[in-house]
Amino acid sequence: MTEQPAADDSSLEQLEGDIWGDPAPGATDLVTTVHRLRRKPVGALTAEDLRMLVAQQVGLDILVPRALTRLERDPLLEGDYYPGDVLVATLKVPVSYWSTHPDQLARLDAVATSVAEPDADLTSDIDAFRERTRGIGR
Length: 138
Hints:
By secondary structure, the protein is an all-alpha fold. Helix content is 55%, strand content 0%.
């Protein structure tokens, strides 16, 4: 299955054909931010936007390929927290996603392998990812 890149000027809502509307009154900052980011053109999403949406498992079919492309250029791509936080969010994507996207799984595994001297926390995240996805074709 070949992944086609999403149009840069379209939002997740447009690409998925799923309009969430406004968050409920009193929604948390996280919920409000996710709703706002779903309306932002995917080509304008920052590293932090990608980290947040991927971590919340929003728009994975559209955003994981984009995150992988950016991670292939910079494995320690940084959102708002620390170098590699986008990689960590992507490593934690559910196994169900990777089982239907083994080509992307192989790309992520290659990115993880490319990190020179990862710190103990990142090493642990990479090891957990590999354990969870063991047996899925790479």
